[in-house]
Specification:
single chain; alpha+beta; Alpha-Beta Plaits; globular
Length: 93
């Protein structure tokens, strides 16, 4: 499975509508309204690169009100459990 983080810049007056439209696209698991240099962040989880192209190029990028997107592919996922295990020194409690 591929995970992509898509940063979305939108027309300010259309941010809520853009967020709703992005969440309706199959393959988009979450959309966050955020502070900082971008307006929205979408988490995309798909089976392969072809599906990713469909979600981003054929879906997200065609939503009215979107000005720009930047897509980052995740290499690895680190959860709190993974990090605890990675830094466990084996000293016991």
């Amino acid at each position: 499975m591929l995970t992509a983080i898509v940063m979305i810049d939108a027309t300010p007056a259309q941010i809520p509508e853009v967020a709703v439209a992005v969440t309706a696209i199959p393959g988009v698991s979450e959309v966050y309204s955020v502070t900082g240099d971008t307006d929205l962040i979408a988490i995309v989880r798909v089976k392969d690169h072809e599906d990713l192209a469909s979600v981003v190029a054929d879906g997200i990028n065609k939503i009215p009100g979107i000005l720009r997107t930047q897509t980052n592919l995740a290499f690895r996922t680190y959860s709190p459990a993974d990090l605890d295990q990675a830094f466990d020194l084996g000293l016991g409690d």
